[in-house]
Amino acid sequence: MHIDKDSRVILLPETESPAEFKILELPTSNNLSTTKSYLFDATTNSLYELNEIRTSESAKLKSGDAVKSYILESDTSGAIIQSPRTIISSKFNLVYLLISILSSQKEDRFITVDDFMDRVAWSHNLPESVISNALVQICDELDQGDAKFYKFSLDKSIQFVNEKITKLVEFFTNEKNTVIEKVRAELNDPTSTEVVSQQLVSELTLQYAIDYVCGSYIAEPTFKQDLIKKYQYKFDNVDAYLAKLKEKQKSLAVVEANMNEVIHSTVKNRKKEQKKTIKKVQTKKVAVGKGALDGFFKKA
């Protein structure tokens, strides 16, 4: 077991049978000019993206305490990693990466899987079946018997992404999570006792889901607007509500600032008045031998 200061712990996905993982460097789907590490399970043809848990979100024990170090043991040796840096593996759908690549190429003709793999060098690290299974989900397919051809379809791609967005909205709505709590907090009007309408909650939740999926996985900047246009999603109500709420919050902030200024000025003026009303008490000096008790102590 070789451990050094740069060693990190990777939390592998659960598998029903022993898995054979290998690490690949692939483009980041929302920014094709950068790369990141992925895990590929050759036994199931599954792909996982690797993300490091930041220090502020360090791994937790069941007790809730943060992980400060790891103790690793094998049959013959052991080691301690003194850093809590942890990498988690999350299932990744290769279709997102292909959408970003093909939508940026703007090509309107049929190509074979081999054509695609010749153009994209990293694709040779994956089995051809994995590439073709991803292409068929977002391309028009032409079967010529001895060969299959694929042409990128924006409509199919938008439909694929929208299905993921719909599932994410269902999760946000039906499960207890921080996103729906954030949505309700953002819509909360502290000056009103009225309950926020479900329509506003639904619109903002959908906005969050669209922003998350498109922002996290799609590189093409116009893709999100194309999706919103295709499905005629409307956010007029929630946009108007949030704009009105923002103006109200600004007004409240101005009122609060003015009140604080008035309070500050009032306290300052009171202190000045108190200083004016306090008069210095003058004490009259008595000559030696003329005091009230001096006669009592005189010699007879």
UniProtKB/TrEMBL annotation:
Query: What residue stretches are annotated with the Rnh202 triple barrel domain?
Result: 11-93
Q: Which UniProt keywords apply?
A: Nucleus
Query: Could you tell me which InterPro entries the record lists for this protein?
Result: RNase_H2_suB, RNase_H2_suB_wHTH, Rnh202_N
GO BP terms: RNA catabolic process
Keyword ATP-binding listed? The answer is: no
* Record has Nucleus as a keyword: yes
Q: Where does this protein reside within or beyond the cell? A: Nucleus
Superkingdom is Eukaryota
One Gene Ontology CC term in the entry? ribonuclease H2 complex
Query: Ribonuclease H2 subunit B wHTH domain spans which residues?
Result: 96-222
Kindly give the Pfam families that the UniProt entry links to this protein: RNase_H2-Ydr279, Ydr279_N
Summarizing the function annotation, the protein's role is: Non catalytic subunit of RNase H2, an endonuclease that specifically degrades the RNA of RNA:DNA hybrids. Participates in DNA replication, possibly by mediating the removal of lagging-strand Okazaki fragment RNA primers during DNA replication. Mediates the excision of single ribonucleotides from DNA:RNA duplexes.
Write the protein's name: Ribonuclease H2 subunit B
Source species, please? Spathaspora passalidarum (strain NRRL Y-27907 / 11-Y1)
